[in-house]
# Entry
Amino acid sequence: MGSLKISKEQARMVMVLLAGAVLVVLNQTLLSPALPSIMQHMSVNETTVQWLSSAYSLTEAVVIPMAAWFMGRFSTRKLFISSMSLFAAGSLVAALAPFFAVLLLGRIMQAMATGILMVMVMALILLTFPRESRGQAMGLVGLVIAFAPAAGPTCGGLLVDMVGWRALFGIVVAISVVVILCANRFLVSYEGFKRTSIDPLSVVLSSLGLIALLYGLSSFTSSTNIVACVVLMLVGLVLVAFFALRQFKLEEPMLRLEVLKSRRYRTAFFVVGLLQAVLVGLSVLMPLYIQNVLGLSATMSGLMTLPGAVLGALMGLVSGRMFDKTGVRLVALVGAGTLLVGAGGMATFGIASPIVLVITFYAFTSMGMQMLTTPINTWGVNSLDNELVQHATATTNTMNQVGASLGTALIMSFSALGASLATQQSGAEVLASGYHLSYLVILVIALTVGLLVLLSVKNKKNDKEPAQAKSAVVDSHGVQHTVMEFIDKNPLTIPVGAHMADAAHVFGSTGASGLIVVDDNRMVKGFLSNSDLLKFFGDEMESITGTNGFLVTRLPDDESVLERVSRLSGIEVQELATKNVVSVGPDVSFEEACHVLAEKRLKELPVVKDGKLVGSLHRNDLVRAISFMLEDAHA
# Structure
C-alpha cells in the first residue's frame, strides 16, 4: 500500500474490503443503461422501472442506521462474508427473475447488503490505519471507489448491447463469489466494536421515518399530489426526530447519535451531506443538459463528464495526502475555492455554451467536491473515539442518502420551475432556462459549503473541542504539566527482523512489559507484549476436565517444553506482535492519554509523529503524576 506503512496482512485485507466496496458501488450505476431493455422485456413503464433505483436507495437508508448494531453483534469477518453472500444471492435472483416483482426483490436484497457493507468497509479501513495516515488512506479509498460509478454506465451499456441485461447480474454474481473466497482467505476480524442492543421501536421509527422522508423527496418532482409529498416529508422528519431523541434516552442506543455532539464531526456531517446533494444532482442534470440542450449524444455526455470524474478521483487521493501533511484548513479552503469556480462557471451555461467550457467547469466542480469530501470526512471522524467510528460512518451514510434525494428533488424541481417561467421561449430554450435555474441552486449550495468551511473547518490546534483543546493539565498552584513531560523519549524497541529469542532476552534482563517493533526508520510496525510470549505456550495447550471436576491443562504429548522453546526462538517478532498498534500523537492531551490507557487497558502507549516513534507513555508515570497532583490539591 505504498507509503501508508501497513503490514502485508493488512494490505491484503484492505484490498478485499475495497473489492467488495467497488463492486457494490459499481452495481448502483451499472443498471442505468439497461432500464429501457428491462421496460421492454418486463412490459413496465418508466414510472415503474425507476423503482429499481428508488427502492435501492430507500432500502439502503433503512439498513444503514442498523449497520452499527450488526457490527457490534457479529464478527466483522462473518458479517462481511454474509453480506456479500446476500448481495450475490440478490444478484442471482435478479438475473433469473421471471417478472418485475422478482427483479425488484433481487435489487432490494442487494441494497440490504450494500447498506451494511459500505458502513463496515469505511469503518474497518479507517481503523486499520493510524490517525496520522487516515487522510491518505481515505484518499486512496476515494480514488478506487470513485472510478466505479464513472465506469458503471459505460460498462453497463456495452454489456447490454452485447449480451443483454440479465448478463449484468450474472457477472456481478461471479465477481461476488470471488470476493467471498478472498475474504474467507485473507479477512481478519476487528474486535474493537462495542456490542449494542436492538430496540424494536427505534427500528420502526428510523425505518418509517426515512422511508417517508426519502419517498416524499424522490416523488416530489413527478407526483401530481404535491401536498401528499410534503406531508410525507414532514411525517418523516417528525419520526426521525423521535428516533434521535430516543437514542439519547436508551442505555444502549441502536445508533450513538452522541457523535453529533462533536462540533468537528457535526460540521463534517452537514458539509458532506451538501456535497452529496450536488454530486447526485449533477449526475442527473449534466446528461440532460448535454443531450437535450446542446443536442449531443449519450456517448458524448459520458465522455464530457469522464474527465471530471477521473480528475475528481485523483484529487481525492491528493487531498488525503495534503490533509495528513498540512491539516484540514488549507486543503478545505482550496477545495471550496475550486468548487465555487466550477459552480460559478456552470451557472453561466446556456443554449450554446462551448463544449470546452462545459468540460472545464464540470471538472473544476468535481475536483472541488473530492478535495472537500475526503479530508473533511476524515477530520470529522478523527475527533471521535475509535469505538464511535462505526456509528459515525453509519450516521454519515444515512445523511448521504438524504442529501442524494434532497439534491435530486431540489435540482429537478427548480428545473421544472425555470422551464415554466420561460413563457416567451420554445424548445431547447425552455429547457435551457430550467437547467440554468438548477445550476444557480448548485451555486447557492456551493456558497453555503464555502461559508461553512471558512467559519468552521480549522486545524486541530484551533479547534474548540474540549477533548482536543487541552494540551496541559494545571495543578492547584497553577503550574501547567504538559503531556510531553511524561513521555519516555527512549522507549524499549526491537527491530522488525529480530527473533523471539532476542525479545525474550530483553524481557528477562529489563523486566519490561512490552517492546515497540520498529523498522530502520523508526516507523512503528507492531507492539510485542510479554503476554504475547506467554500466549505462545498457553494458546497451544490442551485442556481436559478431570474426574474430580477440576480443569487440568497439559502440553500436547508430541512436543516437549524445550522443543517448543526451541521453535519459539526462531520465530520473528513480527509474527507474534500486535499489528494494529494503538498510538497517540505528541500533542495529545493529558486527559486523552489517560482515557486511551484506561479504556484499552494498556500499560504502554507509543507516541508517534508521521508514523515515526518519538517516545512512549507509561501507565505508571501518569498514575504517579495524578498522585502528586492530588497531594498538592489536598495540601
Observations:
- The two ends are 55 Å apart (CA to CA).
